[in-house]
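S.,

Sequence below, as promised.
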Amino acid sequence: MSYVMNTYARQPIGFVKGEGAWLIDDQGKRYLDAVCGVAVTSVGHAHPKVVAAITDQANNVIHTSNLYRIFRQEELAERIAKLAGMDEVFFCNSGAEANEAAIKLARLYGHKNGVENPHIIVMEKAWHGRTLATLSATGSRKAQAGFEPLMDGFVRVPYNDVAAVQQIAKNQSNVVAVLVEALQGEAGVTMADLEYMAALRAICDKQEWLFMIDEVQCGIGRTGKWFGFQHADVKPDVITLAKGLGSGVPIGACVAAGPATGVFGPGNHGSTFGGGPLVCAASLATLQAIEEEGLLEKSTQTGEWILAHLRERLSPVAGVKEIRGRGMMMGIELDRPCADIVNRAREQGLLVNVTAENVVRLLPPLIFSMAEAEQLVATLAPIIKDFLAA
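The prediction came back faster than expected:
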């Protein structure tokens, strides 16, 4: 009997050690990890800089709370703000909490500007988290089912549809923000058009709305730039971060600029564990590793190679609809549900993920070598072909 609450359909395997892009199970079998803990371990498992930072910090102080200054937090906030061109950072423990903070910030911004019932525009098929507010903002009825009544205050429109947002701007006066993913991961690795992002920025400027971008999955180098929005050359008012920020320690961040700066004051929001010394030390080491090892450029080149060779081997195959991605975030869309591909790949020592029921999602670490990229393609392509031929 397991005493762990049954909230996950776990695979019949557990890991006892990680080395770079590899995981080792309790039987000693090695697996090439193209899931990365769902876009988390971007600099690989047991990266020496991260291990050293965590060890050193644990030997000094792990927790003091936000009743006092946290020097590592201040250092990390400055680092993130400068990388993103933003002004201030609130730290929490997860992507859902980061988005929760963004939602609260937008509502407070609205109230401070005389909007009594502030609403936020969100997208179809969006994924923002599983807390009640972020679940309400999420565009998945499957995830929402059974948790009604959901929170109101959200207006949903299709992703990549500028006209739909413009229509809301004409007809609804209580909107205060747009919340959008630069790249929808859970929806099947669907990218926002660059022109779409620029148009949203322009609409938000005109309407005096906050432009809020969820970078929880695609931020911190995953797409080949520090942040997904940088591909569109726009500047948001709020970004949310988590997964790749701390190499596996629980950390999230809500980052503000422009009109979103200074909206929160003492007592408006908080987190007992948010931005503690240990997680901030790990995050600083993660950012240092990405920068010093040139992982933005490396992941861009490796990701382009993987996409090109997957397309070469799979695009002509009946049942393959599209192969898309940016950097180290890729999706292979099939014409049918394909959850069994996860099991077939695992049996051959490769860890992949399926999302949106019919998209094989690849989230390799940014440190992936060319040899590992070749092994990924050489293993996965035949698995998909055999699956589709069955």
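Residues 175 and 183 are 23 Å apart (CA to CA).

Coffee later?
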